[in-house]
Amino acid sequence: MSSTILDVKDIKKRFRQAGGPLSGLLGSERYVAAIDGVSFYVKENETVGLVGESGCGKTTVGKSIIGLTDIDSGSIVFEGSEISGLRGRKFAPYRKKMQMIFQDLDAALNPNMQVGAALKEAVNVNHRLTDAEAVRRVTELLDQVSIRKSKLARYPHELSGGEKRRIGIARTLAVGARFIVADEPTSALDVSIQAQIVNLLLDLQRAHGLSYLFISHDLPIVELVSHKVAVMYLGRIVEMGLSSSIARSPRHPYTRVLWSSLVNKGEGRRVPGGTDVRPGPGCRFAPKCPAYFSMGRPRECASEPALKEVSRGHSAACHFPY
Ligand SMILES: Nc1ncnc2c1ncn2[C@@H]1O[C@H](COP(=O)(O)OP(=O)(O)OP(=O)(O)O)[C@@H](O)[C@H]1O
Ligand code: SF4
Ligand SMILES: [Mg+2]
Fold first, then answer.
1. Less CB within 10 Å around the terminal CB: N or C of the chain?
2. Of 232, 241, 242, 226, residue with least CA distance to 308
């Protein structure tokens, strides 16, 4: 049985929302709890999908894991070592093994650097290679991500979206990543290219034994690539289980709504109705929950439900799971 590569426990992160210039002095600052107590683990060679509508905190979870965002509390254990709070040289050895494919296609690419130079820089992060060794390694990487050698002299603006994505993936492999946060790796790409990128990620996982946290709002793609899926709503995981159970027999009302909004509209960035700010102390989904209203607003929903096992390996944070 494969071992756990990443174990995230009860992480929290609040961001201060921009207010007026005097909001700090007047004590009227507002905070948004981007992550409000998230726990999950990823095993070696496994893909965990993280889904949820825009703004629910998916990217913040990914950035927290790879150290780009400092968490307020909680624990992040990577390959058996606590890494939250580590900085600089102490974090560097882990940072090479944990990489992020950014939501923004251009984020990982220096616009002033040719593809070849960028990849050469990346392969030299771990070991100082001779020129000949670096060229050999870069050629190997291009081959792995199916990019022609003629693209080495290109600048990022001369590449297509799919090519930028492939080069971004090659960079993560170049530095020796074992665990990759793939943040919406297929968004902003044509449907045919999306399938190619998904297949590339699956092939690389098989070839190198990689683990992924695969972030997307696209449940069908997440179901295709993930072993397990976690569904996030307003900073919390509300349902988690094997990808087939989450897709075929969701137990949390939010997952059902998310699914039906995807199926009915082809996409589901937002669940309709109400506000996206957490209302009060009770269940955060209550203002939009069809079950809550059809049951006549039961009292139980006035307390926040914990994520509990509803069947083997399947958990939901709801007092009345389906
Ligand atoms: N650096 C920041 N400063 C202030 N607020 C932030 C910051 N980063 C994220 N947020 C807020 O935290 C919440 C979660 O944002 P996040 O980007 O993690 O969501 P997401 O699920 O990745 O959304 P999307 O699907 O649109 O990418 C949002 O309300 C967002 O506005
Ligand atoms: S706890 Fe109540 S309000 Fe919350 S999701 Fe379940 S039924 Fe809906
Ligand atoms: Mg995001």
1. N
2. 241
Ligand 1 pocket check for 35: Cβ under 6 Å? no
Those residues whose C-beta lies under 8 Å from the C-beta of residue 284, and which sit 6 or more positions away, are 233, 234, 236, 278, 304
User: 237: CA distance to ligand 1 center in Å?
Assistant: 15
pLDDT digits (tens, 9 = 90+) for 104-158: 888 878 999 999 999 999 999 877 889 999 999 999 999 999 999 999 999 999 9
Among all bound ligands, the one having the nearest atom to the CA of 302 is 2
- CATH number belonging to domain 42-72+82-234: 3.40.50.300
Which atom of ligand 2 is the closest one to the Cα of 286?
3
Our mutation pick for probing the ligand 1 site, out of 11, 23, 53, 60, counting the most ligand atoms within 8 A of Cβ, is 60
The one-character DSSP state at 75 is E
Domain chopping of the chain, boundaries: 42-72+82-234, 250-275+282-322
Query: Tell me: the pLDDT tens digits for 179-231?
Result: 999 999 998 888 889 999 999 999 999 999 999 999 998 888 899 999 999 99
Taking alpha carbons only, the member of 74, 84, 81 closest to residue 35 is 74
List CB-based neighbours of ion ligand 3 within 5 Å. 59
Residue whose CA is closest, atom 5 of ligand 2? 318
In this prediction the pTM is: 0.92
Burial class (CB in 10 A: 0-12, 13-18, 19+), 188: middle
CA distances from residue 296 to 252, 259, 293, 300 in whole angstroms, order as listed: 17, 23, 5, 11
For 97, the token pair is: 């093994």
